[in-house]
Amino acid sequence: MSSTRLLFRDDPYARECEAVVLAVTPEGGIVLDQTVFYAQGGGQPGDVGSIERADGAEIPIANTVYGPDRSTILHNAADAANVPQPGERVRLRLDWNRRYSRMRVHTALHLLSVVLPYPVTGGAIGEGEGRLDFDIPEAGLDKADLTEKLNALVARDAPVRERWITDEELDANPGLVKTMSVKPPRGTGRVRLIEIEGVDLQPCGGTHVRRTGEIGRVAVTDIEKKGKQNRRVRIALA
């Protein structure tokens, strides 16, 4: 089976595309030759939306995940009995409001890892909110102080770009990896980096806004003690 072309990597702002159905799993996972839907990974949920068939019938997509070999993407239909056939040409429509909210949160979490320069032990992106877990020996974190520092970085309106390095270059610069629980995806010989100009550089496979100003105002909403040296910091879009 051919691999799925990841259009969301070429343009995370693309909301629709045409595609050809390559296969359908017994569970209702639709494999396409290309997609604008982000597949779940790295703490970012898979995209939802719909697939429109040639006759205008719409198939709601409940989640998007990688296939077993990670070369294909499965668009999981909400109803496994309502799926297209291999060879059909279809149109994908992304739930853009949900995706864009996640893009803003994801970029804000990268900024949070700058405000709190400690090893990251976990993280998740939700609907208009997200969190990172940090390996911090002492507490003493203040929500108002962190919120002020975070919004100061947002206000820089710094460009957000991607670049690629080889596996060997990453091995030579282990400090680029901030996350202890999620390792950068390997296997292709190169690793994708997300650069926030003048602010941050780290491996990431997720979708991000073009400039930090698009994030808008954010707030640190909670700081939880999850262990002797583990603090969970939650943020939300204002």
Would you kindly provide a written description of the structure presented here, covering whatever features stand out?
It is a single chain. With 238 residues, the chain is α+β, with helices and mostly antiparallel strands. The protein has 2 domains: 5-94, Elongation Factor Tu (Ef-tu), domain 3, CATH 2.40.30.130; 99-237, Threonyl-trna Synthetase, Chain A, domain 2 (Threonyl-tRNA Synthetase, Chain A, domain 2, 2-Layer Sandwich). Helix content is 18%, strand content 38%. It has 4 helices and 15 strands. It has helices at 7-10, 96-115, 143-154, 167-172; strands at 5-6, 16-24, 29-32, 34-35, 49-52, 58-66, 73-77, 89-94, 120-125, 129-135, 160-166, 190-196, 200-203, 218-227, 230-237. The strands form 4 sheets. Strands 2-3-7-6-5-8 form a 6-stranded antiparallel β-barrel. A hairpin with a 5-residue loop joins strand 5 and strand 6 (58-66). Helix 2 crosses helix 3. It is elongated and about 60 Å long. The chain starts with a strand and ends with a strand. The model has no long low-confidence stretch (mean pLDDT 92).
Spell out the key features of this protein:
Elongation Factor Tu (Ef-tu), domain 3, alpha+beta, 238 residues
| Intertermini distance | 44 Å
How much of the polypeptide forms β-strand, as a percent range?
35-45%
| Strand line-up in the sheet with most strands | 2-3-7-6-5-8
Q: Estimate the global geometry from the Cα principal axes.
A: elongated
- SS class: alpha+beta
Mean pLDDT metric: 92
What is the H/E string? EHEEEEEEEHEEHEHEEEE
Extended strand count: 15
CATH superfamily of the largest domain: Threonyl-trna Synthetase, Chain A, domain 2
CATH class of the largest domain: Alpha Beta
Structural domain count:
2
Percent in helix: 10-25%
- Computed CA radius of gyration, to the nearest angstrom: 19 Å
Low-confidence stretches: none
Number of separate helices:
4
Biggest pleated-sheet summary: 6 strands, antiparallel, barrel
The CATH architecture term of the largest domain is: 2-Layer Sandwich
Assign the CATH topology of the largest domain: Threonyl-tRNA Synthetase, Chain A, domain 2
Chain oligomer state: single chain
